[in-house]
Design a protein that fits this description.
Strand 4, helix 5 and strand 5 form a beta-alpha-beta unit. The protein is built from 22 helices and 22 strands. It has an eight-stranded mixed β-barrel with strand order 13-14-16-17-18-19-20-21, surrounded by five helices. The chain has three domains: about 140 residues, Response regulator (Rossmann fold, 3-Layer(aba) Sandwich), CATH 3.40.50; about 150 residues, Alpha-Beta Plaits, CATH 3.30.70; about 260 residues, Alpha-Beta Barrel (TIM Barrel), CATH 3.20.20.450. It is globular and about 95 Å long. Helix 3 runs parallel beside helix 4, helix 8 packs antiparallel against helix 9 and helix 15 runs parallel beside helix 16. With about 575 residues, it is of the alpha/beta class.
Length: about 575
């Protein structure tokens, strides 16, 4: 038994003999319990007792004239199957007892052997506690799979599912809905001025202001960062516009105070009609374009999507990136660069692959210009596979040609958030590595922390699948929310990459330095090696080494260069 709280026991006993009930009460008291006992002897009394209060334990006799133990068990199971249910009877056959156990009873004790009662109660109380804890953990994981960890809103995947359901409804019965795409203005100022903790708190408070202004039938979701989606069910466009203006006013009127600083933020909202014959991804793209049109027109406003809108026509110019990317993959105009991940504690160094795009004039374009378009139009899974295939080809060629057998350590490839849902990705990686005769340890894969948390179940499955095949996995941008330490036990990775926003200023900012040290310590406790990003000078590298950080990556180590396993000097000499 445990402490005082466990000694207090609420016991419901179904027993027609008061004397037998008193014997059970005596056993409980002798065992150190302080029972609050209620006796019932009919189904009606038991229903009333179950509805009237919570119970820790149910004990029932088997042989009662008008109320069988099977009826009592059925009532108990229907009310709460986790409550320990124990049969205590003077005469019960083994066959009846086994049937009762199969039906959900947890144990049975003969009245002439009550010495078994206390051990049975102790055991079943512990088991009930374990069952509840397990169920709570499962419920938490299920909730995390469909909800945003920070705000509690549904996440992007669940929002898209509900949008598709609304479209099916529109196709079947002609209902008209409305979709809002909301992007906060000046949110980055809060993050940059006061840190991510302040930004997280601002998001939570704004969500608390917005939720009372929408109906229970509507869906508010966090789509990522400071972007939100709102699906207004059975809502005409004029009413949706009024709702959007009300949300804007609520955000604009809010004063966010953090320490001695205060901030006003605004929002830009794109609005699109949801009706029959449309596509969910196209609708999201339209609402997104309308949102950016609202920003272009001065922010803090609502912009309604229309096909002939000049602003949206300019926005559709982003589709050119999509065409350029598709041509680049076909013509090998996507380029792979690499950057060394330098060991600081005597281990083997690694490398990360970085993507570039060759422009029409031969210029080298960095991913910040084309990746958003690729993400918006769901091209990233295809790009990820292109990178994997070409990285394996280059590794095979360089391993065959380099005297030292190629680069030491692993070459890490970034996987996009959308690739977490690619059920065949692990098999594709295995196929490519085997086809190019690469040992699994030569390849590693990076998943951002935010993507992993946003799609937890898919991330967990992908990480397990990769590590079971011998590939290494790194959790990138770790520490941005400072709410994800709890995920390290479940997301069993080989490396965590400490977000560069903390590393870059760690010599000037004591808080950033403390965060870097905390992430490093937690990682090591979890048996995970740490990599600091954005290491821009030798002084930072020395501080990281003194802290015990395992690896450093950044311009102080090496600037990105075309992917090859040959040393730079050898390539330049040729």
């Amino acid at each position: 038994m445990g402490g005082t709280e466990q000694n207090h026991l609420r016991v419901l006993i179904a027993e027609d003999s008061e004397d037998d009930a008193l014997l059970i009460l005596r056993e409980l008291r002798l065992g150190g319990y302080q029972p609050a006992l209620q006796r019932v002897d009919s189904a009606a009394q038991m229903r009333e007792a179950l509805d009237g209060r919570q119970w820790d334990l149910i004990i029932t006799d088997h042989n009662m004239p008008s109320f069988s133990s099977a009826e009592a068990l059925a009532l108990a199971r229907a009310h709460d199957p986790n409550i320990p249910f124990i049969l205590v009877s003077g005469s019960i056959g083994e066959e009846v007892a086994v049937d009762a156990m199969k039906s959900g009873a947890h144990d049975y004790v003969m009245k002439d052997n009550l010495t078994r009662l206390l051990p049975a109660i102790d055991r079943e109380l512990r088991e009930a506690q374990n069952r509840r804890a397990h169920q709570e953990a499962e419920a938490t994981i299920r909730h995390m799979a469909y909800h945003d960890n920070l705000t509690g809103l549904v996440n992007r995947a669940e929002f898209e599912r509900r949008l598709e359901a609304a479209l099916e409804e529109a196709d079947q019965i002609g209902d008209v809905h409305a979709l809002l795409y909301l992007d906060l203005d000046q949110f980055k100022l809060v993050n940059d001025s006061c840190g991510h903790l302040a930004g997280d708190e601002l998001l939570r408070r704004l969500v608390q202001r917005l939720q009372p202004r929408i109906r229970d039938s509507d869906t508010l979701a966090r789509l990522g960062g400071d972007e939100f989606g709102l699906l207004l069910s059975n809502c005409p466009l004029t009413r949706a516009r009024a709702v959007a203006e009300d949300l804007l006013t609520s955000i604009r009127d809010y004063l966010f105070v953090w320490g001695e600083r205060s901030f006003k933020v605004g929002a830009s909202i794109g609005l699109v009609k949801v009706s029959a014959g449309q596509d969910a991804q196209a609708l999201l793209s339209m609402a997104d374009m309308a949102c950016y049109a609202a920003k272009d027109r001065g922010r803090n406003r609502v912009h309604v999507y229309t096909e002939d809108d000049q602003d949206l026509s300019r926005r559709r110019g982003e589709m050119q990136w999509l065409q350029l990317l598709q041509r680049a993959m076909a013509n090998d105009d996507l380029l792979l660069y690499r950057q060394r991940i330098q060991a600081l504690q005597g281990a083997q160094s690694h490398s990360e692959l970085l993507l570039r795009l060759r422009g029409g004039q031969g210029e080298i374009i960095t991913p910040d210009r084309f990746i958003p378009a690729a993400e918006r139009y769901n091209l990233m899974p295809e790009i990820d596979r292109w990178v994997i295939k070409h990285a394996c080809e280059q590794l095979q060629a360089d391993r065959a040609g380099a005297a030292g057998g190629g680069l030491p350590g692993a070459v890490f490839i970034n996987l996009s958030a959308t690739s977490l849902n690619d059920a065949g990705l692990v098999d594709y990686i295995v196929e490519q590595s085997q086809h190019h005769q690469l040992p699994p340890g030569s390849l590693g894969f990076e998943i951002t922390e935010t993507a992993a948390i946003a799609d937890f179940d898919c991330a967990l499955g992908l990480i397990r699948g990769l590590r079971e095949k011998g590939f290494r996995v790194a959790l990138d941008d770790f520490g941005t929310g400072m709410s994800s330490f709890s995920y390290l036990k479940s997301l069993a990775v080989d490396f965590i990459k400490i977000d560069g926003s903390f590393v870059r200023a760690m010599l000037e900012d004591e808080m950033d330095s403390a965060i870097v040290e905390a992430v490093n310590n937690i990682g090591h406790i979890a048996g995970i090696q740490t990599i600091a990003e954005f290491v821009e000078n030798e002084a930072i590298m020395q501080r990281l080494s003194a802290m015990g950080v395992d690896f450093a990556q950044g311009w102080a180590v090496e600037r990105p260069q075309p992917f090859s396993c040959e040393p730079v000097a050898d390539r330049q000499a040729r």
